[in-house]
Amino acid sequence: MPQRKRKKEKDKKDKAKRPKKGRKKRFKLDVEAVSKEIGEEIVRRLGLDLIEITANDILDIIENIVSEIAENRVTKPSNKSIIKRILASKDNFRKAVAVRLFELKQENLTLEQLEFIVSYAPELAGKATPVLYKIAKKYNAEYVISSLQTLWNKYGKRTPLRCPRCGFYSVTPDLTCMVCGAILDEEEIRKSINLIEKLREFSRHAPTPLLREIYQAGFVILNDEIHPPSTAPRKGFRVELHLKPNERVIIINELKARDEL
Ligand SMILES: [Zn+2]
Question: How far is the CA of 176 from the centre of ligand 1 (A)?
Fold first, then answer.
């Protein structure tokens, strides 16, 4: 025991003397050199050449993994075993590549690169939907757009209001679309949510005081549904829709039918 203690103390001393060197390596591995050696093979075996990724583009990603593998090994790993390890978790590797691809190309992605990002980095794709949507549109890739709609709802900034132009739930309360950039007017929103039908449905079932409230206020609040002002959520998404005469008349007729007006 005392011996061990002395050794510990000595290690401490060594560390103090060479603080930057970190923990003692059991073997030496030139991470950069190994990464360069295996880069081409990784690219080829994962089919990354098909999406125009070069070994150089992802050298630092390979380096990170190589040094991680080396850290956890007692004996020096061969290039072959490193490649095997990378291929064993290829989806994680592809995810890192997809993130890199987006950083490198942004709006200049090819269709194949876009598909790659949507498949392997779904979270990023959901967040970057406004950029990726424009690219998908350029290539007329409806199937990519439909994947993006799902990813936007899951990882993006979904709002309760669907854009009548691009179909994403991405209309903000000031009626601009975060995905396609459309600036919408109230008329387009009225049509797309079918306000007349919604008012008819509402007036059939709503208690009289709520109908009277809409009649007096002259507007409804829209979030995921239409509400009289008093029952609408105070916070979050709210759009005020002022009723036109042909919309107001629906409420008036219902009140009259109930002998309330
Ligand atoms: Zn839109």
Answer: 8
Enumerate the domain spans of the chain. 26-88, 105-184, 194-257
Q: What is the pLDDT of residues 106-156, one digit of tens each?
A: 999 999 999 999 999 999 999 999 999 999 999 999 999 999 999 999 999
Beta strands in 96-225 (DSSP E): 219-222
Distance 222 CA to ligand 1 centre (A): 18
User: How far is ligand 1, taken at its centre, from the CA of residue 189, in Å?
Assistant: 12
pTM higher than 0.90 for the full model? no
Cα–Cα distance measured from residue 16 to residue 187, given in angstroms and rounded to the nearest whole number: 72
Q: Are 174 and 161 in contact (CB under 8 A)?
A: no
Q: How many residues does the chain have?
A: 261
Q: Ligand 1 centre from 224 Cα, in Å?
A: 17
Distance 132 CA to ligand 1 centre (A): 13
CB distance 228 to 217 below 8 Å: yes
Give 161 Cα–ligand 1 centroid separation in angstroms: 10
Q: Which residues pair with 227 in a beta bridge?
A: 221
Tokens representing residue 129 in the block: 């939907």
Gap from CA of 168 to ligand 1 centroid (Å)? 6
